[in-house]
Every structure is written in C-alpha cells, then in structure tokens.
Write a structure and sequence with these properties.
Helices cover about 40% and strands about 10% of the residues. By secondary structure, it is an alpha/beta fold. It folds into three domains: about 170 residues, Up-down Bundle (Ferritin); about 325 residues, Vaccinia Virus protein VP39 (Rossmann fold, 3-Layer(aba) Sandwich); about 35 residues. It is globular. The N and C termini lie far apart (about 80 Å). The N terminus is likely disordered.
C-alpha cells in the first residue's frame, strides 16, 4: 500500500494544456474595413468610399439626434422633441423619422433597402440647409448592391458607437471625443482608399503627416483660411485641430474652399459637418481656374495640395489675360503647377502666408515660361521657405514632392494674442530645408514623418522667423517678443538647412532646390591621421580579396564534385 502511495506521489504530473494566446483584437476601423471590403465585385472601388462614408455619416447624425432628443425628454421638454430649433441650437441636425438610422437598421434586410437609404439621405439634406449639396442623390438605388452585402455593412456600422460616455470630465471633452471617434473612421478610410485606389485616391487625400506639417509651419491661429482644391477637407480639419491643440479659439477663423469633383465636394461637406466645422466651399463643385467662387477673397492662410503636373488645364486661347497672372508670364497649357501658385498669390492678404505641396520639378523647371515666373516670384521676395520632403509619403504617387511657403510680408510683425510668435525682419532671405532623410517606413512601400520630425522642421522655420517660443539658445527679447533683427536659436546646419539671400538664389539661376543650398552634412573628425586610417583600410581590403579568392576555390571544387568542373 505504501509503495502504491509513493508511486502516485512520484508519478509525473500531466502538463496543463497551453492556453491559447488571446487573438489580437481588431480596431473598430479595421473591423469595418473588413466588412466593407466584401463590397468589392459589387461596386467599383472608386464608388466604395462613398457607400461607406455616407452610411457612417447617417449613423453619426442619427446618434447625435437621438442623444439630443433623449436629453430634451429628461429635462421635461418632451413637447419640443419635434421642433427643429431645439436641435439646431445645439448644432445637431434634425432628423424626421424616415431619415433616422434606427429606421434603416430595422429595414436592412428588405429588398428596397437601397431606396430607403436614398430617402433617408434626401430627407436629411432637405431638412438641414447646412447640408445642401453634401449628400448623394439616389446613389444607392443606382448602384444595385446585393441586399445581403448592404445589410451586412449596415450591421457592421451599427456596432460603431459614435457617442461618448456621459461620465466624461466636461462637455467640451465629450464633444471633442465624439467628433474624434467618427473623425478617426473618416481619416482611416480616406487613407485606406488612397492606398487601394491608386492615382484617383490623391484627388481627395493628403497624408496626415504632411497636413500636420503645413499647419505647424504656418500656424493658422486667426483670420481667413483658404484651400483652392480642398479635396475631402483635410486641411481645414487639421487647422481646427491645430487651434484646439494650442488653446486657440475656433471663432477667430473663417474657412473658404473650392473643389471641382462632385463626389469629393460632397465628401468634404460631410467631413466638415461631422466635425461641426462651418465652411464656405462655394455653391457648387467647380473648376477653380474657370469658376472662382471666391473672387474677392484675401486669405491670411492658404493650405493646399494641388493636382501635380496637371496637363491641358486650359485651352491655348483661354485665360491668357486673367488678372491672377498680372505681372507674370501666362502659365503654360502643359502644366498647371504655376497656375496654382499664381492663383494662391492672388488670394493672399497683405500679411498672408501660403503653404502647399508641389512636385519637385516645380523648383527648377524652365519649361515654357515657368522659370521666368519663378524668377519673378523670387525677385518680388515672396518665397519664404522651401522644403524637400522624403519619398514614399504619398499613397498615390512616387513623384518626389516639396513644400512651398510664400508670404506677402517678410517685415517684422507682431502676432496678435501670440507675442511669442512675433516675426523678425526677413526681407531678402529665404530658408531652405532638406528633409529627404527624415521619416520612418510604416510598411514596405510607404513612409511618414514622425511627430518629432514635424516638430524639428517647424522649430527650424519658426526659429529662423525669429519666434521667441523656438529660441533654443535664449536670445534677447523685448516687449514679450523678440529684438528686431534677432535670429534667436536659428543656425545654418550643413546638409539640413540654410538661410540664403536673394543673391545666393540668383547665383544658382533662381533654382529653389534645397540641396543646392544646404550642402553636404559635416562629417565628424575621429582624430585618426589619414595615413594610419588609409593603411588600416588597405589591409582590410587585402583580407577581403584573399577571402574572396578562397571562396572561389571552394565553389570550383564543389562544382567539380558534382560533375560540372572544367
């Protein structure tokens, strides 16, 4: 008996079964993408984004409506739940029964669900003037999506909680988080669409890191913001985010834009409406060159990503005497890059600054008068800063790109409400930054600028402008700003940045490529004499050559052993 007991005690214990590692939980954006991806084969990929984003928009405005309705009931104002004014006073869209997500969700499996969605979108737009022209018209009916696939997509979107917890710290935080949830979906999807749609995606999406950099550079605290080719409205969204980040007041800015493509124009209106951003995007989608819907606008800030190298943007005899080119050569028919530049120059206020993306060729081209236009821009002292960006930032093109920054005022300037941002006198100077070696790969084919990269580039520009907040060395300041003429913490850095004069640029034939000016990065001297270093390198080379000869012999023997010798 004892032996039995001992044996039991010494018997090897059974190994407990290994617990499966918990599956990595997908984000709600990825889950939604996976569901929506099943639409492929049913609709063209170019239509895909409009299906998804229209439904997300409908879900969001419905959720905010229902939340406001419940609030009225809880406050004893149930008699007013169908009065539009009680919703608009809180910046909430009023939705009749047919336009509510709950109605769509209940009827998701019915054969006429596409018609129901179209009716809901039409009713929503009809009852809310701010959405005029924003929502697709009879769109879902025309697509002919299978009911089962459309129903599955509706179910997936139904799982997105667009509202935030009521126990959050403040109403402001609640509002910010609410907009952020749906904003995340928009940004995620626009990026995904750009990555999968190729060239067409660039019509509505600019990489977030590039938009962030533009905003951090020009600092749109107050005044009029304009984008002449606004796409889905990303520049405006980031401008508002910049203001929030720096504790500014959104009421200090007004937003103007224009977009030619009808579907993208609608995307922009939806994107801005979701975030509670008021903007004047013109009455209709229209060509900025031929139907300028803001003819008298003088903007304080311009942010843009115009279509690169747009060919045949005008006829040979069209727009030849347009006042926007006054004082410059007429931009050539074969490329609209300089037409965009001159259009933006014409829209700048006396103190305005423009930051925009263009193909690298714009910095050096001399094709059909483009060089003469660039020379005139330089001689008029409008070019404030040029930045060469790293490749692979854009989903839709491998063309190397750069950032232009133009300003109407390089004189010393006090920034209202932000004395730490006061500018020094920079007349006759242009800053060149070569950022081609910055950025990190996010996948095999795409790169993005990190937050540190963006901060470093913006800090360099601001320090050069003489801003006290970026004075890393602590220069003398007066009256809460900077001593006129002081450059503060800015220094030229070989291989990275250079403050050039107009004479420097003239000596380089008016070419604006940063590499021409910043030179090569300095190589730190390791203190080893040249003769000693050369002797070591030579011996290392001889060792490698000997090893190469040995390996050649081994390879020959192996080939001979296999019957393939000479």
């Amino acid at each position: 008996m004892a032996r039995t007991t001992t044996a039991k005690k010494n018997a090897p214990k059974k190994k407990a079964p290994k617990k499966k590692a918990p599956a990595k939980q997908k984000s709600f954006e990825q889950t939604l993408w996976d569901t929506a991806d099943k639409l492929r084969g049913t609709v063209e990929s170019s239509e895909y984004k409009h299906v998804v984003l229209s439904l997300i928009f409908l879900k969001f405005v419905s959720d905010t409506f229902e939340q406001r309705k419940q609030q009225l009931i809880d406050e004893g104002q149930g008699d007013y739940v169908d009065m539009v004014e009680f919703y608009t006073m809180k910046n909430v869209f009023y939705l009749p029964e047919a336009a509510r997500w709950s109605s769509i969700q209940k009827q998701a499996k019915q054969d006429d669900i596409a018609v129901k969605i179209d009716t809901a979108l039409h009713t929503l737009e009809k009852n809310n003037p701010a959405l005029k022209g924003a929502l697709p018209d009879n769109y879902f009916s025309r697509l002919g999506i299978e009911v089962s696939k459309l129903s599955a997509l509706i179910d997936s979107i139904n799982n997105i909680d667009t509202l935030v917890r009521s126990d959050m710290a403040s109403p402001e935080q609640q509002a910010a988080s609410e907009l952020d949830i749906v904003g995340r979906v928009y940004e995620y999807f626009l990026g995904k669409f750009a990555a999968t749609e190729g060239k067409g995606g660039g019509e509505f999406y600019t990489p977030k890191c590039v938009v962030n950099l533009l905003a951090e550079m020009i600092e749109p605290y107050h005044g009029k913001i304009y984008d002449p080719c606004c796409g889905s409205g990303g520049m405006f969204v980031q401008s508002v985010k910049f203001i929030d980040k720096h504790q500014g007041n959104k009421k200090d800015i007004s937003i103007y834009g224009q977009e030619q493509t009808s579907t993208t124009y609608k995307l922009a209106k939806m994107n801005l409406a979701i975030r509670g951003i008021s903007a004047n995007l013109g009455e209709v989608p229209a060509d900025t060159f031929f139907k300028d819907q803001h003819p008298d606008l003088k903007a304080d800030f311009i942010m843009a990503n115009p279509p690169f190298n747009l060919d045949q943007w005008r006829g040979a005899d069209e727009l030849t005497d347009d006042p926007r080119w006054s004082g410059y050569d007429v931009p050539p028919v074969g490329n609209a890059n300089y037409a965009w530049i001159l259009h933006m120059v014409s829209k700048l206020s006396d103190r305005g600054v423009a930051g925009f993306v263009l193909a690298n060729g714009s910095m050096s081209t001399n094709t059909k008068g483009e060089g003469a236009i660039r020379q005139k821009l330089i001689e008029n002292d409008l070019v404030d800063c040029m930045i060469a960006l790293p490749g692979q930032l854009f989903y839709t093109t491998q063309i190397p790109v750069c950032l232009w920054f133009l300003t109407k005022n390089k004189k010393a300037e006090a920034i209202p409400g932000h004395p730490e941002s006061n500018h020094r006198d920079r007349q006759g100077e242009t800053l060149f930054i070569d950022a081609r070696n910055m950025g990190s790969m996010i996948d095999r084919t795409h790169k993005e600028l990190t937050s540190d990269d963006i901060a470093e580039i913006a800090r360099t520009y601001h320090a050069w402008r003489g801003e006290a907040k970026d004075d890393v060395q602590g220069s003398t300041s007066v009256a809460g700003g900077r001593t006129p003429g002081a450059t503060g913490g800015y220094e030229d850095k070989p291989g990275y940045c250079k403050a050039a004069t107009l004479d420097d640029i003239k000596a380089n034939d008016y070419v604006l490529t940063p590499g021409r000016y910043v030179g090569a990065a300095e190589i730190e001297d390791d203190g080893i004499p040249f003769e000693e270093k050369m002797a070591e390198l030579t011996q290392a080379l001889y060792r490698q050559m000997d090893e190469a000869s040995r390996l050649d012999g081994v390879i020959r023997e192996n080939l001979a052993g296999l019957g393939y010798g000479r």
